[in-house]
Amino acid sequence: MAIAKTIDTKFSHNNIEAKWRSMWEKNHTYKISDESKKERWYELTMYPYPSGDLHVGHWFAMTGADIHARYKRMNGYNVLHPMGFDAFGLNAENAAIQRGIHPHKWTMDNISRMKKQLDTLGPMYDWDRQVITCLPEYYKWNQWFFLQFLKNDLAYKGFAPVNWCPSCVTVLANEQVIDGICERCDTEVTHKDMDQWFLRITKYADELLDQESIDWPDRIKTMQTNWIGRSEGVEFEFDISHCNLEETKLKTFTTRIDTAFGVTFVVMAPEHPLASSITSKSELESVQNYISKSRQSTEIERLATDREKTGVFTGSYCINQLTGEQIPIFIGDYVLASYGTGVVMGVPAHDQRDFEFAKKYDLEIRVVIAEENYDQTEISEAYIGPGIQINSGNFDGLSNMQGKIEIANHIEKEKFGNKKVNYKMRDWLISRQRYWGTPIPIIYCNDCGAVPVPEEDLPVILPEDAEFLPTGESPLALHEEFVNVKCPDCNKPSKRETDTMDTFVDSSWYFLRYTSPKFSESAFDPSTAKLWNPVDQYTGGVEHAVMHLLYSRFFVKAIRDLGLIDYDEPFDRLFNQGTIIYKGHKMSKSRGNVIAPDEYVEAVGADVVRTYLMFIGPWEQGGEWNDSGINGAVRWLNKVWDLVHSNTSLLPNEISEDLVNQNNRIKNQTIKKVTEDIDKFKYNTGIASLMEFTNQLIELNSSKKITSDQLRDTIETLLLLISPIAPHISEELWEYIGNEFSVHQSEWPRYDETLIDDPTVTFIVQVNGRVRDKITLASDISENEAKNVALESPKIKPHISGKSLNRVIFVPGKLINLVVS
RNA sequence: GCCGAAGUGGCGGAACGGUAGACGCGCCGGUCUCAAAAACCGGUGGGGUUAAACCCGUGUGAGUUCGAAUCUCACCUUCGGCACCA
Length: 821
What we know:
By secondary structure, the protein is of the alpha+beta class. The chain has four domains: 40-136 and 504-586, HUPs (Rossmann fold, 3-Layer(aba) Sandwich); 230-423, Alpha-Beta Complex (Isoleucyl-tRNA Synthetase, domain 2), CATH 3.90.740; 616-755, Isoleucyl-tRNA Synthetase, Domain 1, CATH 1.10.730; 760-820, Ubiquitin-like (UB roll). Helices cover 34% and strands 20% of the residues. The strands form ten sheets. It has a four-stranded parallel sheet with strand order 2-1-24-25, with helices on one face. The chain has a four-stranded antiparallel sheet with strand order 4-3-7-17. The protein has a four-stranded mixed sheet with strand order 11-12-10-13. Strand 24, helix 15 (548-561) and strand 25 (571-576) form a beta-alpha-beta unit. Helix 20 packs antiparallel against helix 21 and helix 21 (708-722) packs antiparallel against helix 22. The structure holds one RNA strand.
């Protein structure tokens, strides 16, 4: 795509940028030392997937993080701001299938291209710290963590109905299915029953709910809380001992045990293991038809909430142990197998879904919680509010809140069930039936079962010479040499696990690896990890709210319990930058609306692109790329360039004290504003005030209201303030004014609060709240004096003449409001 | 359906109880030029006026307040998240 016509920079941006990048490289300007005595700051931004080309969205994310990291560094911190690549993933494998390029080559080629592109941005990365997750030196530790998890009952293999993406040809974790659609390829997800590896994230459900100690956006915290979905209730058992099954009890889960006397039916999920066996002979055919039909329906169909509730009677009954009543058992697909016990007690009077089901199948609707003024007539919808227990045996007359407690206690005492906490979140399914990922270090032996690969045999290397067929068959499963091994325990011929790990395993601990990327004795050097972690400031997109961000929190808690680290949360602060859109849409290759930064960098330079991106709008919000908007950034940096290069020999040597103070005021105000804005990631307004500052200096220069010494000093401040945003040109100009290399190793300017306040100020004079005049007054003027001045104002007089002054509102240094009538 | 965020010039946005529209883009007029671009100067919410004054204006409607884009309530729209979780 050809870039829009831009105006030209007045400086040769390409030379300047190349010059300083090589200077920084040569001087190790951004090399990070673990030994520094300075306070440490870990500024992390989410590492990219090496998809091929860096687009403007990457630049947007990375520039914002780089600015903040540079700012922290100038404020005296030893800053770790590393970069790496999330290098395993399906795109690489699909490229192999479609174009015959090996995933390793595809990935590494992309990485080297993206690194070059990233370097043109002028970031303060120390590439010695880079992490590339597809290399054995990294994924070995995925395997090692897996083995530790296995030992500590945090990893297990389980047979379960799982999400299957027919396009990616693999299973997916629940977090990776969004509204029934595969998160990465937008294909409708189906179900399969498979034996898969899980990580026991649910063990940490309650701890993950505790977000007290982390400074994260509420939005993300809420999303995680909703995802975990804790609910307290009772597992209530119905007696089925008369059914001649192994099980004698049918377990249901409810949060409304107060309604247990209103149960008029029970519904089982179609996938429930007893669904067929509990069915009577006469109903078997219709039940099996129903089950197979519902199994064929897609996730999307099943999730539609406005769908009519359907079900089928099993011909069997269970006993409500509280009442001794016979309760009909149904199969219905509005009940989810994966939540609770997969069986629901139907209380149509107090649950809308059950109500609809009862209406459809003509089942009794028995009110057991009476709302205020309940008149015993038939109800037209379920009543879910509070009320008084009725038709509830000994519990009649209690409030349902009390009923909830006492019925639960009664059930526990009589051993009809137990109080129980349930979570919506499931364990993390990490098996993937694909090649380009970390091999799961397990060997299956006929005699010994699933045997972990001994730690000393790690890493289990992903074989290079795999065949990539478009059949969906995992290349590893076809790789004889890889598959056929000896059992580590008994030495008999055995088979390797051919599934690989979810790539979210890689990103769950990469922030630890950055602290010692070459350490070979373990996943990370405990001493340097302790030095840098947890991450002080993490930035990235909001799309990882319940995937990467949740998994990482789990990982940290899990390895803390293994004794490897001693803190609870990976990321102390989190900030989500927004998205850059173009032509009204998020940029994507398929839509053909991708802005490649390279051409703009060539045309106007990285500093301009950085500045423009940060100026578009609040970093938090993102915004629309506007082809002509970039001219504003060019003009500004041109002005800065001209200002610094302007001839100052004609400036006066002395000016009035008032002018000196005023010039100082502008400078100190700007330092304060820019400091506060960068601190809060409000780059757009920070840049705006720098533009204003530049305009003011140009004006002072041309009107000779500044001495050359003061101008030089002020320009120095300007360059320091610009340097995190436009690192190259500020370095060039820093050198030009005769300062020592490097502006990036200089201290952030301080402001003097006492120099900021203006001795005179424009007072707003209002009459009845409407602005009628503006008068310049001493900022510390008293109410009385201000009132007298205001009353004398020719602009005010007509508005108050003939009226009586009832009240005066006075805001010191700002405003006076005369209330008249 | 539930929860959350947001609605401000032609556009991106600023202000977040006290001058609405900072800063920038674009546009209009001027200077320079043979001409254009760039640069520079001026203008740029609507009405009104020779010019002022003045009136209207931050999604809609009410309210609180001396004063509301900002706080409260209701509604509309947009965007996110959740959504048969028992």
